[in-house]
Specification:
This protein has 76 residues and is mainly alpha-helical. 63% of the residues lie in helices and 0% in strands. The protein has helices at residues 14-27, 31-54, 63-72.
């Protein structure tokens, strides 16, 4: 399966670049792969944070109620 890619230039701190070079060799990956993986994780974390923030105003349900519901439904 082919993946679409786009080239771009990223300017890195020399220490960050050296770290990425060592990690790339150690993991047998390209620097681009490492950066893409880390950015994907950051985006996932941002989505999780947004979901948490959007649910802050929801009412809380006690563990006892959740447990009772699970027992009632035969799941516990």
């Amino acid at each position: 399966m082919a993946t679409l890619t786009e080239r771009t230039t990223v300017y890195l701190n020399p220490y960050v670049k050296k770290y990425l070079q060592h990690e790339a060799v150690e993991q047998n990956k390209s620097i681009s792969e490492l950066i893409n993986e880390q950015l994907a994780e950051l985006l996932e974390d941002a989505e999780d944070s947004a979901a948490i923030n959007s649910r802050k105003t929801e009412s809380l349900t006690s563990w006892d109620k959740v447990k009772a519901d699970l027992v009632r439904d035969g799941l516990l």
